[in-house]
Design brief:
heterodimer, A: 88 residues, alpha/beta, Transcription Regulator spoIIAA, 4-stranded parallel sheet, B: 360 residues, Beta Polymerase, domain 2, 2 domains, 12 helices, 10% strand, elongated
């Protein structure tokens, strides 16, 4: 399981993308992300989750985000991303 | 098995040519598959085999005198296309004729050989050659000279033929008339079933075309809501304008996601026809936009999924029908699956809806 902590915003979105790059390029089929420590995500963060999900799906796997705090979940809900990404 | 000298010579020829037959088998199979793929035809099976030595020996022992050389035996290599439906056999044979040279004098349509009151083996058998226009290897011209057999039949014809083959053809004992008759009766039943499958498929295709034309013509109230009709409706991009309007709140990128998962949601919300969901769109688009405006304005979120339009329409529909927080919770459970988030979200959205007077 991968753990995410803190904010994903304009100041660190590129860094976040770099950090998840090994997950995109790796061969791990399923990716489980614990979002308990994540306090915010910007649009850039949403885009990165989308890219990560696409790469995981392309290799036949599934990406799941877990333990999201309600404020972060709200971002996924109001943008319609809860319809695209599996959040448990 | 004791064979005469003539048959032994044919058998030797067979052994010597086996590698070429193996190669031809692979080429034929590949060419047939390509032909099917290029014409977007799915079949139940495509197979090819080389007659094994024992089987050839048996054949030679019984009627070796009929063959001058191995070339006269046309089923050393046999390929078979098994279609899903009996009416596809003619279509596939027409396509195959374009890529393979048919020896019409030795080909036979066994479907047409049975008398009107007889039921039994039904299959189209072509004796063929691979023309140079399809495959040419100057080092192995035999590949274009060897004749092979291609059988085409439906899945049910294949089932019957396999059973018949297994029960009688290989046996040394002749099948008694009584059992022959039972096999013929089964062949009759399968022939009827084959026809029914083809008929049902034609009717389903007609239904789909009708529905597509009704959806395209805008007669939505006459179109029952089901997976097919909803898919046709979505091709009209009914939610795109609302999604674009929502995206414009933050000058956001619109991410095109699938709306098909909402089919079950709409169905369970009681929508019976495409007209019902069209009415929902007409009546509640403004409310759905106002909700998005309240939620997104000032957030700086500059990407939204297309599905947010239909998501908000469903929310407004539930609220306008007076189902309140409980209705929202039910909706979110349907859309996202049951989760602890849903109750909080139902409460929050209910409060937001009150702020913009969506709830009277």
């Amino acid at each position: 399981m991968v753990e995410l902590n803190g904010r994903i915003d304009t100041t660190n979105a590129d860094q976040f993308q770099q950090e998840v790059k090994p997950l995109m390029e790796g061969n791990q089929s399923d990716i489980d992300i614990d979002c308990a420590g994540m306090t915010y995500t910007s649009s850039q963060g949403l885009r990165t989750f989308l890219l990560l999900q696409k790469s995981v799906n392309a290799r036949g796997g599934k990406m799941v985000l877990r333990n999201m705090n309600p404020m972060v979940k709200e971002v996924f809900d109001i943008t319609g991303f809860s319809n695209i990404i599996t959040i448990l | 098995m004791k064979l005469d000298i003539h048959s032994e010579m044919i058998l030797d020829e067979y052994r010597a040519q086996l590698p070429i037959f193996e190669r031809l088998k692979d080429i034929v199979k590949k060419q047939l598959q390509r032909c099917l793929d290029e014409n977007n035809i799915l079949v139940s099976g495509l197979e090819a085999r080389i007659k094994n030595e024992n089987s050839l020996e048996r054949k030679l022992a019984i009627k070796g005198y009929k063959y001058r050389t191995l070339d006269d035996i046309t089923d050393i290599l046999g390929a078979r296309i098994i279609t899903f439906y009996s009416d596809e056999v003619d279509l596939i044979s027409a396509l195959v004729e374009r890529i393979i040279e048919i020896d019409w004098n030795n080909s036979v349509d066994k479907r047409k050989m049975l008398e009107t009151d007889r039921f039994g083996y039904m299959s189209l058998h072509y004796v063929c050659r691979l023309p140079k226009s399809v495959y040419n290897d100057p080092t192995t011209p035999e590949l274009n000279q060897i004749r092979f057999e291609l059988q085409m039949r439906s899945t049910l014809q294949h089932v019957w033929a396999n059973m018949y083959h297994d029960m009688g053809y290989k046996s040394d004992v002749e099948i008694p008339m009584e059992y022959q008759r039972n096999m013929s009766r089964l062949a009759g039943i399968l022939e009827l079933a084959d026809e029914q499958f083809s008929l049902i498929r034609r009717e389903i295709n007609d239904y789909r075309r009708n529905v597509q034309s009704l959806v395209a013509s805008g007669n939505f109230n006459e179109v029952p809501l089901n997976g097919d009709t909803f898919r046709s409706y979505l091709e009209l991009k009914p939610y795109h304008r609302l999604a674009e309007k929502i995206a414009a709140i933050n000058q956001a990128e619109l991410y095109e996601d699938s709306l098909m998962p909402y089919y079950n949601v709409l169905y369970l919300l009681g929508m019976k026809t495409i007209g019902d969901i069209e009415n929902m769109r007409n009546e509640y688009s403004e409310g759905a936009y106002q909700l998005a405006l309240l939620q997104l304005a000032g957030t700086g979120l500059d990407i939204v999924a297309c599905s947010v339009a239909l998501q908000n329409l469903c929310i407004v529909s539930v609220l306008k029908q007076g189902f309140g927080k409980a209705g929202l919770l039910k909706l979110f459970n349907l859309v996202y699956g049951e989760s602890s988030y849903n109750a909080q979200r139902a409460k929050r959205v209910f409060e937001q809806a009150q702020k913009i007077n969506l709830i009277q």
